[in-house]
Specification:
Elements (H helix, E strand, L loop, with lengths): L1 H12 L4 E6 L4 E5 L16 E10 H8 L4 H13 L2 H4 L7 E9 L8 H18 L4 E3 L12 H6 L8 E6 L3 E10 L2 H9 L12 H11 L6 E4 L6 H7 L4 E6 L2 H17 L7 E5 L5 H5 L4 E6 L13 H25 E15 L5 E3 L3 H7 L2 E2 L22 E4 L6 E9 L1
Parallel strand pairs: 4-5, 4-6, 8-9, 8-11, 9-10, 11-12
Antiparallel strand pairs: 1-2, 3-7, 6-7, 12-13, 12-16, 14-16, 15-16
The protein binds S-adenosylmethionine (SAM).
Length: about 425
């Protein structure tokens, strides 16, 4: 959901016309009015692979072929693959061509068959390549492995250069067969995380999430972004890479210096000669005084989310944590409204505390945000989706949750507009 919200906000803020043909937890299918440069994957924190669709196969055929082992349906798939440009696109290298197949599916009925599907598609492609005189090696896997290549494998084996990873994505009505054209490079994000001069293990935010939050704010080229709880500057770094002017504020003077040094390092490392940044020490209580009224286009911030917890707390204890943090969050929302320019956006993280009884305890900000004058930005609207698609409650999604099973305190992300 977070990755999909990042995409819709990224496209909308850049006036890129798109339609979501399909979405699931595993993959999205997007149709663009004009072309979309897949290299832009480096701007996105939540997208792992981008594929170009080569052909589609009706779902009944896929089910018949793999769940019922129907020979006619299998033959149909071989024909459809042969008729597509998939094998012709693969670049002939001097050595044997190495190619791979990754299978994604929405319906769990396919989970036991994904390895078989992978091998079937692989051997069909291998035969097609042989017909054109290309000898190839298929990256097959042992049965216990997920039938998907990781982005690291795709990168290391140069499958993008050779257009030789095939994505077989099974949706509810059809399957899309695509060729991977761009891949998320985890080493670039990792480099910004572990090689920056100053790091903080406990409060640090992963750069991928920081990038998603910057994209949710819609802030790009030439605009001004403020992080008023900047810590060591992870959000500021990601924004600076989008050629945004950044301002950081933190109450802790060590953080101010650390963030400054990190931004100096980033500018050198990425040759950002026009980078425009400043970091100041200050308390959000007096943000207007420090930054000025209506002086920034976006604010993207993660304030302190509460104490580090060893165990899942009880509901009363979680409520106590929220009560303690509330005045600081409320004061910040008031100040943020004043500092933002008209139509400016605030992307705010509030704590999402998972308790022993599994009930989540969250920060009740609704009344505060509307009394200040903010309105919620909904990342999804009906027009973004193919009209035949059942999108359920998606358009009513108000906040985005980032919390995995291990986290006692996760994040609730609010996108607000002045
Ligand atoms: C969760 S950390 C932010 C982490 C940051 N996104 C990063 O990746 O480094 C919250 C930061 O808010 C700062 N802070 C806490 N209370 C503050 C206040 N009242 N005004 C300004 N900064 C504050 C803390 O010093 C801390 O660095």
């Amino acid at each position: 959901m977070l990755s999909l919200a990042e995409l819709t906000n990224y496209f909308s803020s850049r006036n890129i016309e798109f339609k979501l043909e399909y979405f699931s937890r595993e993959f999205f299918v997007v149709k663009f009015e004009d072309s979309f440069n897949p290299e832009k994957i480096k701007d996105l924190g939540g997208t792992i692979k981008i594929g170009e669709i080569k052909t589609t196969i009706p779902n009944e055929v896929v089910k018949e072929a793999f769940l019922s082992k129907n020979k006619q349906a299998q033959k149909k798939i071989v024909e459809l693959l042969a008729g597509s440009s998939i094998s012709k696109m693969m670049t002939k290298t001097t050595k044997k061509l190495l190619f791979g197949v990754s299978v994604y599916f929405t319906d769990n009925a396919f989970s036991h068959f994904s390895g078989q599907i992978q091998r079937f598609i692989g051997s069909s492609i291998k035969k097609e390549l042989e017909k054109s005189g290309i000898s190839s090696n298929f990256m097959g896997y042992t049965k216990d492995r997920k039938a998907q290549l990781s982005n690291v494998e795709v990168l290391k084996k140069n499958l993008i250069e050779n257009q030789s990873e095939i994505l077989f994505c099974i949706g509810k009505k059809e399957a899309w067969v695509a060729s991977t054209v761009a891949i998320h490079n985890p080493f670039e994000f990792q480099k910004r995380d572990i090689y920056k001069p100053n790091q903080r293990k406990i409060f640090g935010m992963p750069p991928r999430l920081a990038r998603i939050m910057v994209n949710l704010s819609g802030c790009n080229d030439g605009k001004i972004l403020l992080d008023s709880f900047c810590g060591v500057g992870t959000i500021l770094q990601e924004a600076l890479l989008e050629e945004v002017m950044v301002v950081g504020v933190d109450v802790n003077s060590w953080c101010v210096k650390a963030a400054e040094e990190n931004l100096d390092w980033l500018s050198r490392e990425y040759n950002l000669s026009a980078a425009d940044y400043r970091v100041v020490q200050g308390d959000v209580d007096r943000l207007t005084e420090k930054i000025g009224v209506e002086s920034v286009d976006c604010i993207v911030s993660e304030p302190d989310l509460g104490p580090a917890l060893k165990d899942f707390p009880t509901v009363p204890y979680a409520e106590k944590i929220i009560e303690k943090l509330k005045p600081m969050f409320f004061r910040f929302i008031e100040e943020a409204y004043k500092v933002l320019r008209p139509n400016g956006r605030l992307v705010l993280v509030t704590p999402y505390i998972r308790t022993r009884s599994r009930q989540a305890v969250t920060m009740p900000v609704d009344e505060k945000i509307s009394s200040c004058g903010f309105r919620r930005v909904h990342s999804f609207s009906r027009e973004m989706f193919n009209e035949e698609l059942n999108i359920g409650q998606l358009v009513h999604t108000a906040t985005l949750i980032e919390a995995d099973d291990r986290h006692k305190i996760g994040r609730e992300i609010h996108v607000l507009q002045k």
